[in-house]
TrEMBL record:
Residue positions binding sn-glycerol 3-phosphate: K111, G141, S143, K196, D249, S259, R260, N261
NCBIfam families linked to this entry: PRK00094.1-2 (NF000940), PRK00094.1-3 (NF000941), PRK00094.1-4 (NF000942)
UniProt similarity note: Belongs to the NAD-dependent glycerol-3-phosphate dehydrogenase family.
Chain positions recorded as substrate binding sites: K111, R260, N261
Pathway: Membrane lipid metabolism; glycerophospholipid metabolism
Signal peptide (UniProt feature, chain positions): 1-22
Record HAMAP family: NAD_Glyc3P_dehydrog (MF_00394)
PANTHER family referenced in this protein's UniProt entry, alphabetically: GLYCEROL-3-PHOSPHATE DEHYDROGENASE, GLYCEROL-3-PHOSPHATE DEHYDROGENASE [NAD(+)] 2, CHLOROPLASTIC
UniProt keyword terms in alphabetical order: Cytoplasm, Lipid biosynthesis, Lipid metabolism, NAD, NADP, Nucleotide-binding, Oxidoreductase, Phospholipid biosynthesis, Phospholipid metabolism, Signal
Name by which UniProt lists this protein: Glycerol-3-phosphate dehydrogenase [NAD(P)+]
Annotated binding of NADPH, by residue: S16, W17, R37, Y54, K111, A145, R260, V284, E286
Length: 350
């Protein structure tokens, strides 16, 4: 009787989201190699099957193996999943390049822009691995690592212009508790995943100021309009923002205490300086860096993003959170539907 050799999948790196996605793959009987620079973390994963710093209450699959060797992790892998912070994604991709074969499927689940160049993550990865950007798969959607690793029902999207690549990624991840849809609009999915962290910072700030559910609902809704405006200007399909990677991820990130960005915003509302917030969190808060990138992108594309603008003032110019919210509420009158339609009209007419 013939047996099928399981796919080898390399996951780079072993943060909370990388570890959770590696667990999904291991549960699907994949041969998973989880890479980390931290030898103590690798030893903990391999001997105790835990990753206490990032997922303190999780028990990891015994067939999930970690390593500090990039060569060991990537060599022979049929798929490589990059889940490094946006600030180091280029460096990690460059380290992996010597061991990636031409037919290896490349997937990433990193949310943000490269600060210096304002490039999307798929662009950065494609440049470093010398790949066609349209073959890079993006995984995103409403998904907290803490829930995924504990097998709570979760639904995400894998986006790629190359339909075959998207379906290959879908086959790797889909499981009874992890449902996966495909989408050809990688640009829209990446923009949504990056910008929702900005709005989550604002939601945490609003909650920290005890402004209530009405204010947060408005923030989420108007935040989605900002995301759609910039996304459409960058070439995304507006319909993507009504899906899992858009409104789905936005809602979960803005309403859950699992969200790092929400927690960071709440701390800011208490008057804690940004540097202290980041130090206290002990993990990457992508929304802070992304706010700076989005502020510049809004200027480049001539897109109005008032929530992003006010958060930029709070994070980088010392503006008080309370005054920022007051200035948002005091903006001039506008028409809701016409405002969205102006930003997305060209896309609707295609």
């Amino acid at each position: 009787m013939m047996t099928t050799t399981p796919h080898k999948v390399a996951v780079l790196v072993a943060g909370s989201w990388g570890t959770a996605l590696a667990s999904v793959l291991a549960d699907n009987s994949m041969n998973v190699s989880l890479w980390s620079r931290n030898a103590e973390q690798v030893n903990e994963i391999n001997t105790r099957h835990t990753n206490h710093k990032y997922l303190p209450d999780a028990q990891l699959p015994v067939n999930l193996r970690a390593t500090t060797s990039m060569e060991e992790a990537v060599t022979g892998a049929t798929a490589v999943l990059l889940v490094a912070p946006s600030s180091v994604i280029r460096e990690v991709a460059a380290q992996a390049k010597p061991y990636v074969s031409e037919d290896t499927l490349i997937i990433h689940a990193t949310k943000g822009f490269e600060t210096d160049t304002l490039k999307r993550m798929s662009t950065v990865i494609a440049e470093e691995l010398n790949r066609n950007e349209e073959d890079i798969v993006v995984l995103s959607g409403p998904s907290h690592a803490e829930e995924v690793v504990n097998k709570r029902p979760t639904t995400v999207v894998v986006a790629c212009r190359n339909e075959e690549a998207a379906e290959r990624a879908q086959d790797l991840f889909i499981s009874p508790y992890f449902r996966v849809y495909t989408n050809p609009d990688a640009t829209g999915v990446e923009v949504s995943g990056a910008l929702k962290n900005i709005i989550a910072l604002g939601a945490g700030l609003s909650d920290g100021l005890k402004f209530g559910d009405n204010a947060k609902a408005a923030l989420i809704t108007r935040g989605l309009a900002e995301i759609a405006r910039l996304g459409a200007a960058m070439g995304a399909n507006p319909l993507t923002f009504a899906g899992l990677a858009g409104v789905g991820d936005l809602v979960v990130t803005c309403t859950s205490t699992h969200s790092r960005n929400w927690r960071a915003g709440s701390m800011l509302a208490q008057g804690m300086p940004v540097a202290e917030v980041l130090k206290t969190m002990g993990m990457v808060v992508e929304g802070v860096r992304t706010t700076q990138s989005a502020h510049t992108l809004a200027e480049q594309y001539d897109v109005e993003m008032p929530i992003t603008e006010q958060l930029y003032q709070v994070l980088f110019k010392g503006k008080s959170p309370k005054l920022a919210v007051e200035d948002l509420m005091g903006r001039g009158r506008t028409h809701e539907i016409e405002e969205i339609a102006r930003a997305t009209k060209e896309n609707w007419l295609r």
